[in-house]
Amino acid sequence: MSYVVYSIKGGVGKTTLSVQISQMLGLTYVTNDSHSSAHNLMPEGKGFLVSKEEYEEIPFDENVVYDFGGFKDTRINSIIKQAKKVIIPTLTSIVDLQATMATLKDVKEINEKIIIVVNRAKNNNKAVELKEYLNEEIKKLYKDIKIPIVFVRESSVLEDSLFDCEYIETKAGENRFKRHIYRNAIEDMQEIKKLLKA
C-alpha cells in the first residue's frame, strides 16, 4: 500500500511525517524535493530522490511513502490517484490553513481518501477551534466527503527523529523513561497508523 504526504506549502512537516510513516510501516521513502536530504539519511535501499532532472515520470510502487515537496509538480498526479491515502499536513497559522484548503482542492479532484494532519499542535483551545474551522470549511465546500483531521502534538522528539530516520517507538524501545518522554509522539503516530490502515 502506498501513501502520499503532500502540501503545496513548504515547512509544514511533510518530511518528518513521511519518514515516520515509512519507518512505522516498513515502507520505502521517496521524495521529489531536491532540497531535502532525508532520502540520504534513510537505511540503505529505503530512501530515494526522484528529481525532475533525472525522472520524466515518477515510478509508482505499492510499498512507498511519497513525500511531495512544497511546489507544483505535474508528475505527482498519477501517484496521488493510485495512493491508498493522501495525507495533507498543516500548521495552525491562517496562511497554512489557506494552503491546506488549496491543496485539498487539488487532491480531491483525483483522490478523495484524504487525511489532514495538524502538525506541532498544542494542547489548547486553539487546536479545537482549528479543527472546527477546518470541518466547517470542508463541509461548506465538499458536502459529499468526510475527511479525518488528527493532531500531532508539538514535540522535539519528532523533529530530532530526522537525524537518524528511526521510527520513534522503535527508538524508545523498552526503556520506560524514553517511552514516557516519547509517549505523546508515539500515541499520535499510532492514531495516524489506524487511519492509514482503515
Automatic annotation (TrEMBL):
Annotated ranges, domain CobQ/CobB/MinD/ParA nucleotide binding: 4-147
Highest taxon in the source lineage: Bacteria
Name listed for the protein in its UniProt record: CobQ/CobB/MinD/ParA nucleotide binding domain-containing protein
Organism expressing this protein natively: Halarcobacter ebronensis
